[in-house]
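FIELD: query
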Amino acid sequence: MNRQKKIQHLHFRAGFGASYSVVKSGMSSGIESSVDALFRSSGKFTPIKNEYADMLPPLAEMQELSGDRRRELLVRSQKEIMDLNAEWFRMLAYSEAPLREKMTLFWHGHFACRTRVPLFCMNQNNTLRHHALGKFGDLLHAVSKDPAMLQFLNNQQNRKQSPNENFAREVMELFTLGRGNYSENDVKEAARAFTGWGFDREGNFRLRNRFHDDGSKAFLGSSGNLTGEDVLNIILEKKQTARFISGKIFRFFVSDNIDREIVESLADKFFRSDYDIAALMKEIFTSSWFYDDKYIGAKIKSPAEYITGISRILNLRFENNKGLAGLQRALGQVLFNPPNVGGWPGGRNWIDTSSLALRLKIPEQIFRASKIEFDYRSGEGDDGEDDAMRSGNKRSLKLRVSADPSGIVRDFGGMSGKETVEKMAEYFIQPELAEEMLALILKHCDESSTQDTAESAAMRIMSLPEFQLC
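FIELD: result
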């Protein structure tokens, strides 16, 4: 595979694609220099913000209300979460820290969680963003004390008189060890250790001592008056945790097909580094195997990657947050709204007949400045809200976006039609396109001017099935 494809591969996997100028610079400086630049640009933590997110009461207070006031607060809460969703997409598309954003997206799927409280939603995302490239142990402890997660997995109801096992089970099964690497008794004992873990009305973690079981517990070979922190540290002492996390990172950043030998090597280094996430990612991105032909152009872009990618290429501006949320639902991934605690399954699940057809028609509608009309699922919730963030019956929604393709014209204008198509295809598409396909694209391009040629070539190339791969 040529050098350009390898540089693009790095930026597709460590971010959401790079500008043509960044790709050309990387071709000159090389892989290691490009990796270093990605880590430098993502070194700073920038929080996501919504100035109204902390003005709404937590869910506990909403549930104490009834009638129109409760309905009003829930609808407003949903709007603020939708605004957070749109703000995160702006950060994904235009942030100068693409690796940190990509890692935040990964951890959002790993520690999958839903909440109706905007403040909890915002704070959890910032927790993931803050620790995204730090130590996994710090991230695990922070998320385990996060009000959104404690609420979602019912640990607010976990009390010594009647332990709730939900949080303890998912911490092991989905977040650290993986199924089959603990016993049912470990779940029961861990749940006892987490009794009393909760949060107050301001969204601060609280250990409620009167609900905590301070008796002796036996967990994964250790025993004593174990606390929740002790349980997490015991989990981190197991190399299986490093193996499980390394496998999930490999599947997300490299390939849906796990290479056990590579994952075992990564897990060994990850474990010995005290779970240094940045060191693990640098090991992956600088390894020769990462750039093997079998991994380049072999993953289906998630809806978040797809929307972010075209936003970066065309400098898109979505004029309506509800339309953006509806588009996400139509494509199968709404940020801040994973399907369950297991997150999105990914891989081939990203594409079905309906979502692929929508992906293929979006570029043409953007270039023609027409409204993008599609079906999305929406419906009346238990509390009466009607929104693109919810699921239910299919409805039609029109989405209007503004685009600025001047960057494409600048990078690929001024060439012959044939050269424009060839260079643009090499930049936009990771799999190699056949000469016949390139000729067909050129045949249907508008060559009235260099601008028309560049725009029409981009529209047709971005409408190819191969554009869905990275």
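FIELD: remark
The chain has 22 helices and nine strands.
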